[in-house]
Amino acid sequence: MVSALYQLIPDERKRSKAVATRKIPAGTEFVFHPLVTVVNAEESVCENCLLFGEGSLRCSRCKQVRYCSAECQAESWTKGMHKHWCKKQRPDFPSDLKLLLRLALALKQGGPLAETFDELIAAQDMLSPIHQVQFEHNAKIIHAILPHWSEADLITIQAKNLRNSFTVTDGRLFDIGSGVYPLASRHLNHSCYPNCGVSFRGPQMMVKTLVELKEGDELCINYCDPIVPLKRRRKALEDQYAFKCTCEACTGGGWFETSRQGRKTADEIDVNAEEALNAIFRSSISEQILLVLGTDPDNIIQARQKVFTTLNIPPIFLNISVLSLATSRSSSLRTSANWSESASYGLYVLAYYLLIYPPAYALVGLHASDLAITMWNAGGWEGMEYIIYAGILRSSDQVLLLLGLCVPPNIGGRELSAARQFAPSFCGLTLNDNLYHKHHISPELVLDSRSAYLDFTEPIKLPM
Ligand SMILES: [Zn+2]
Ligand SMILES: [Zn+2]
Ligand SMILES: [Zn+2]
Fold first, then answer.
1. Nearest bound ligand to the CA of residue 60
2. Cα of 362 to ligand 1 centre, how many Å?
3. How confident is the model at residue 439 (pLDDT cuts 50, 70, 90)?
4. Ligand nearest the Cα atom of residue 91
5. Per the database record, which ranges form the MYND-type domain (predicted)?
């Protein structure tokens, strides 16, 4: 048993899996503590607790790292091993070495999380030659500081870290560092169509259910971005995590088969992304997709099938290079305040996301929220366009409140705030209006009462 909500059961192919022991509501939160974390160079977050500090302190000696408080500075000097690269005049000590040094020290000190780390898979025989060379080089440096570990041990530790470390992000999903969360690695397998999402509050990892889980459902997160095309995605998973993905998005039938074939066909077309986007704008296909998705938010898979059976989707729509161009255009036009042009690109990106990502996926909520602000700035939305605009706001409200990521934009005054509560939702999420209002008034209150804060302190043993 791991918790009242899920348990680890043995699995032939994946070693073990975390399975819901009863119905788990969408938005339920599990908290995982780090064994160690490291902040990327040049981030304005505290080196020790990863929080954005007000009036940040800097290390007076090397001026390279920031702290939120004197306590964090003191802790980082010893426990965080900062003295080892600061004193030795090595301000360029790279993040991967910092992490390895902290990890080696934490493993030497032991404890439940260190024991769980020991159980993780290293798959050392599958290391690429580049990793092998880099790990040997790092092992020499760390062995000189911490002779407790042999160079061979340090290579194994790095291989385990490669297969199991997480990128730590802020509330807008920007990378701020990386961390080792042994229990999350041990419990949660990957899916390219995950039912749980990962976010961070300082160094704590929050895993939240994106949909309601039934008893027996496996809890999965995504180790790589599901928007990456199948071939590249599977290669990335094999290279870094040493497994072949057999999730429903990779091998499933029905909608997943339609989606795979659609994307494969789209990516094989030699497109001029610029022309493709102009054709997409002329056809208003993105708007039509949103409206069809809004007709069946209870069953997003069925709604997506309906998109493909009732609309004439141009094959280039799902091409990944068209998406990349639209994403960068949308944000650069937004930066230069070309609101309505930015909104056209952003609408296509949203429609694409809604066909691929699982319901309540964080990136979809954040993109919808940015797009709503862009559309508000552009102004002049009428008729069907106004309904889409309000629906985008509603979708962003639902996802962001469910995930507790950040408060949705308070824009548009009374008329729009009424519209956004009754507009169609495009994100495959239904919150009843009562709950929705509660979220709206006080998201913390509702999220807290439905959250299961589980403090894992014991190492987890598989049931016999
Ligand atoms: Zn701090
Ligand atoms: Zn320093
Ligand atoms: Zn997959």
1. 2
2. 26
3. very low
4. 2
5. 46-86
Question: What was the pLDDT predicted at 407?
Answer: 60
Query: Is ipTM > 0.85 here?
Result: yes
Indicate the burial class of 231 (C-beta count within 10 angstroms; 0-12, 13-18, 19 or more).
Answer: exposed
- 19's enclosing H/E stretch is strand 15-20
* Exposure letters 251-275 (e unless 16+ CB within 10 A, then b): eeeebbebbbebbeebbeeebebee
Residues 3-62: pLDDT tens digits?
Answer: 578 888 998 888 899 999 888 888 888 888 899 999 887 777 888 888 876 557 888 888
291: number of Cβ within 10 Å: 16
Protein residues within 5 Å, CB atom, of ion ligand 2: 59, 61-62, 86
Residue 406: pLDDT band (50, 70, 90) is low
3-state helix, strand, coil in the chain (%, to 5): 50, 10, 35
Q: Reduced to 3 states, what is the DSSP secondary structure of residue 428? A: coil
Which ligand lies nearest to the CA atom of residue 92 in the structure? 2
Ligand having the closest approach to the CA of 67: 1
Distances (CA, A) of 263 to 149, 238, 312, 315, 321: 47, 21, 15, 8, 11
Q: How far is the CA of 182 from the centre of ligand 3 (A)?
A: 22
What distance separates the 2 farthest-apart alpha carbons in the chain? 70
Minimum-distance ligand to the CA of 226?
Answer: 3
pLDDT digits (tens, 9 = 90+) for 182-220: 999 999 999 999 999 998 888 888 888 888 899 999 999
Rounded CA separation 169/305 (Å): 33
Name the residue among 346, 308, 315, 312 with its Cα closest to residue 329.
346
Distance 250 CA to ligand 3 centre (A): 4
For 149-177, the pLDDT digits (tens) are 999 999 999 999 999 999 998 877 888 89
CA of 247 from ligand 3 middle (Å) equals: 4
Distance 213 CA to ligand 3 centre (A): 19
